[in-house]
Amino acid sequence: MRRRTSQPLPIGRLPKDLRDVLEHAQAQGWRLERRNGGHFMAYSPNGATIVTIGNGTQSQRRQVLADLRRGGLRWPPSAPA
Fold first, then answer.
1. Which of 2, 41, 54, 59 has CA 20 to 30 A from 10's CA?
2. 25: closest CA among 4, 47, 43, 5?
3. What values do phi and psi take at 31, rounded to 5?
4. Domain 16-70 belongs to what topology?
5. Which residues pair with 50 in a beta bridge?
6. Could you tell me the strand order of the sheet in which 40-43 lies?
7. DSSP H or E segment with residue 69
8. Residue 4 has pLDDT above 70, yes or no
């Protein structure tokens, strides 16, 4: 059984645009798990949505962002007031 942790995962090797989205997702309560082969699984805070994240092309990264937003991710982050 995998140990669940709230510590940030090493997402530093991902493209910066995807890394920014995943860091923001973690701040919103999404849980990330690293899988074999370098992929990540993102689980929404309510557990209803699971998104597989790879280090793919720009169009694949746009699809990941769309999937995360459908799952409840608030993006882009609102500017500080």
1. 59
2. 43
3. -105, 130
4. Metal Transport, Frataxin; Chain A (3.30.920)
5. 43
6. 31-34, 40-43, 50-53
7. helix 58-70
8. no
DSSP letter string, 27-65: HTT-EEEE-TTS-EEEE-TTSS-EEEE-S--HHHHHHHH
Q: Which residue in 19, 79, 12 sits closest to 53, CA to CA?
A: 19
Q: Are 42 and 30 in contact (CB under 8 A)?
A: yes
pLDDT tens column, 40-79: 999 999 999 999 998 788 899 899 999 999 999 998 877 5
The whole-model pTM stands at 0.78
CA distance 60 to 64: 6
Cα separation, 81 vs 68, whole angstroms? 25
Place of tokens 């997702």: 25
Residue 1: the pLDDT is: 47
